[in-house]
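Quick one: Starvation-inducible DNA-binding protein from Melaminivora alkalimesophila, structure tokens please.
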Amino acid sequence: MPKKTASPKTLGATGGAPRINIGISDKDRAAIAQGLSRLLADTYTLYLTTHNFHWNVTGPMFNTLHAMFMEQYTELWNAVDPIAERIRALGHHAPGSYAAFGKLASLADAPEDPPSALEMVRILVEGHEGVARTAREMFPAAEKASDEPTADLLTQRLTVHEQTAWMLRSLLEE
Ligand SMILES: [Fe+2]
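--- reply ---
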């Protein structure tokens, strides 16, 4: 039986690896990877802000917030990896520099001077809601392309960000 050879059409321009062919068009893969890059930048920015607040929080709520922020930045730190690796699985490069994140993020950097403890909580509520909006905005692109792994990842991230926003918001309510 003759060996099956790959058709030249499936080979990449550089020879070695075959062209990615997972049933999602190049245009859709690029659009989803761009959305995931924004989500990665927002998640990384919120991670850094939360870690900053863990270091710099002061006041009577120190113990509670110091520990709570640690739990939250650890979760965010663990979240950036699957987002970046989904971008790679879609055939694109994952951004990973402060310059790239600065261009892509919808969230502002942490303030230079540490705010009060309650102001920190307020900033984090807005941060988690901002990341949730970024994840939700790109949902239609993933659904349109039947990109279930991305839709699943977005669902998981939305659940975490909306729940964390609620918990932080509760600290500010009477
Ligand atoms: Fe620590």
